[in-house]
Write a structure and sequence with these properties.
Length: about 200
């Protein structure tokens, strides 16, 4: 299905890029392509028992798609109030609103309770990412559990940081470059696990 067809099926409106409030620390809203989300949903890492947090959720596409396809709970974090309001408008028309929640706050301030899956599409700079990872790790050590982190289209700074973080274990990558024209090696989802060792 096309992007438009998926939006129509889910009864939401998430198409389009928005960089009105973007700056050097928080990057523009751009939704993950549905074809990539399909591949992630088929990977087996996220299940109906998962609680997924989408950082920089924008209009909520990841949350709506994963909750619809996998029946998991999903939480979207968005700092931009106008875009956050659009995610709430989408929730009002979504067929399973009880599975999704959205919070308008800075990602580094969001307190993680029982979430075990975390999605990033380059939402912010390394300084904010480091703070967010600190929150995730703190939650892990307070209540150890299997936790997966998913990084779609990771930039070089993200990859360098993640690969040198001794508390993260690289699991695998989901190759997505065949979904698009060209041969862009960044078209992938890198998967990491929090490690207690």
């Amino acid at each position: 299905m096309t992007e438009y067809q998926w939006d129509k099926k889910l009864k939401i409106d998430t198409i389009g890029r928005d960089d009105y409030h973007a700056d050097n620390f928080r990057y523009p809203y751009e939704p993950t392509p549905y074809s990539v989300l399909e591949r992630l949903s088929e990977s087996g890492y996220i299940t109906s028992k998962s609680i997924l947090v989408d950082y920089g959720c924008g209009k909520g596409r990841v949350s709506f798609f994963m909750s619809s396809i996998l029946q998991c709970r999903s939480i979207g974090i968005e700092y931009d109030e106008p875009i956050f309001r659009q995610s709430m408008e989408n929730k009002s028309t979504f067929s399973k609103p009880m599975l999704v929640d959205f919070f308008c706050e800075n990602a580094e301030n969001f307190k993680i309770e029982d979430a075990d899956s975390f999605y990033f599409f380059n939402p912010f700079d390394i300084k904010i990412l480091t703070s967010v990872l600190g929150q995730i790790k703190s939650s892990f050590y307070s209540s150890p559990r299997k936790m997966y982190l998913f990084f779609y289209y990771p930039n070089d700074d993200y990859v360098a940081h993640l690969m040198t973080d001794y508390e993260l274990t690289f699991v695998e990558e989901i190759d997505c470059h065949d979904l698009f024209e060209g041969n862009n090696k960044r078209e992938k989802i890198m998967i990491f696990e929090i490690s207690a060792e």
